[in-house]
Amino acid sequence: MPATALPVTPASTPTRTILVIEDEVTIAEAVAARLRSEGYAVEIVGDGPGGVEMCARLRPDLVILDLMLPGLDGLEVCKQIQRERPVPVLMLTARDSETDLVVGLAVGADDYITKPFSTRELTARVQALLRRVDRVPDRGDSGALHLRDIDIDVETRKVTQSEDEIHLTPTEFDLLTFLAKRPGRVLTREQLLGEVWGYRDGSGARTVDSHVRALRRKLGADTIRTVHGVGYAAGDPE
Ligand code: CA
User: Fold this and answer.
1) pTM for the complete prediction?
2) Distance from the alpha carbon of residue 82 to the mean position of ligand 1, in angstroms
3) Do β-strands 41-45 and 17-21 pair in parallel, antiparallel, or remain unpaired?
4) Which CATH architecture best describes the domain 139-234?
5) Band (1; pLDDT cuts 50, 70, 90)
6) N or C: which end of the chain has fewer CB within 10 A?
7) How far does the centroid of ligand 1 lie from the alpha carbon of residue 112, in Å?
């Protein structure tokens, strides 16, 4: 292959590794081909237990995980790989059922995409997720934030409530921090998707709802207020 056909990547950018855990070969291959053409290193595993094992060995930068897998389903795989080491997970689901999505996001997936999807859309999601993980905290991000009885250490990404450390997924932490920095402000789902997830197309409103539910479950129902017809806010009204 001539050198000019290779993706142009700055020398300082290490190749990102993505693990695709999906038993449908045509989908897995299409996803892998597209991501490889974008410059990512991609590995494919076709079953749950193999996926968990490969994730521990490969230590990928991101996992694309199918919900319906032989051996061990996607939810269990997600739980097990997050136990080992926090890694961004994008879930693939054939079912657009609310329950699956809520459970999926509750076990530590950062986002989901419903089949059938375009590989272009998937790539955009992958890039947004990786950008978010890479985001270097700016100066205003140092120090501590407080929300009711919750203390947020932005630098160490630790959350404590009445002295107890609360384990949050990376996305839950980013969402909580974003709201806590703007006490009383009502933010729409679109604003949250744009600022926290990095999505500009307004898709995925249910992703926001599911993460808000997860935060309420972990930190108390009144941590985040629903402002009907508008969106969400944390802290007392302005
Ligand atoms: Ca499947």
Assistant:
1) 0.70
2) 20
3) parallel
4) Orthogonal Bundle (1.10)
5) very low
6) N
7) 14
